[in-house]
From TrEMBL:
Pfam families reported for this sequence: AsnC_trans_reg (PF01037)
Gene3D superfamilies per record: 3.30.70.920, Winged helix-like DNA-binding domain superfamily/Winged helix DNA-binding domain
Origin species: Aequitasia blattaphilus
Protein keywords: DNA-binding, Transcription, Transcription regulation
Name this polypeptide is given: Lrp/AsnC family transcriptional regulator
Length: 163
């Protein structure tokens, strides 16, 4: 069953809208097994949710995304988890990672304006106990997200070659 699960996970990670009958054929299984495995993996917390990737720049919706590096003092007995759990409770926070390097946490924030993000960092994040410093990086343009290139589907025209 482990092989079936791995096959299902690899496929739905790239295409969560696949027809389950089609998925069963693709991985060499039957539809009932696929349905049962998916339900089991959701119940076990292996599958945490399904994501739709949207190119917000094409919608006219104002949206700013920022990556915030956070240096913290780990809490005895809980390490970085206590602060990370607190940060994750904010709806503006779309992701949080423990990372290696000069900073400890990498937080992704979304807001309507640069000011909104800056205010969040300066008034909510930076003053938190155990936060030593932050560095904010605004995303200006996305070229690839979740393995999907964000370029338009129009064909690029070649530049004319002149002698």
């Amino acid at each position: 069953m482990e092989k079936v699960r791995k096959s299902i996970l690899k496929y739905i990670e790239k295409n969560s809208r696949v027809d389950l009958k089609e998925l069963a054929i693709l991985i060499g299984s039957d539809e009932i097994t696929v349905v049962n495995e998916l339900a089991g993996m959701e119940q076990e917390g292996i599958i945490k949710g399904f994501h739709t990737l949207i190119d917000w720049s094409r919608t006219g919706v104002e949206r700013v995304t920022a990556l915030i590096e956070v240096r913290v003092t780990p809490t005895r007995g809980e390490g970085f988890d206590k602060l990370a759990k607190r940060i994750c409770k904010y709806p503006e926070v779309t992701s949080a990672y423990l990372i290696s390097g000069a900073y400890d946490l990498l937080i992704t924030l979304e807001g309507k304006t640069l000011l909104e993000i800056s205010t969040f960092v300066s008034e909510r994040l930076s003053p938190m106990e155990d936060v030593m410093s932050t560095a904010t990086h605004f995303i200006l343009k996305k070229y690839k997200d979740y393995g999907i290139t964000m370029f338009s589907s129009e064909k690029a025209e070649r530049m004319p070659v002149t002698p």
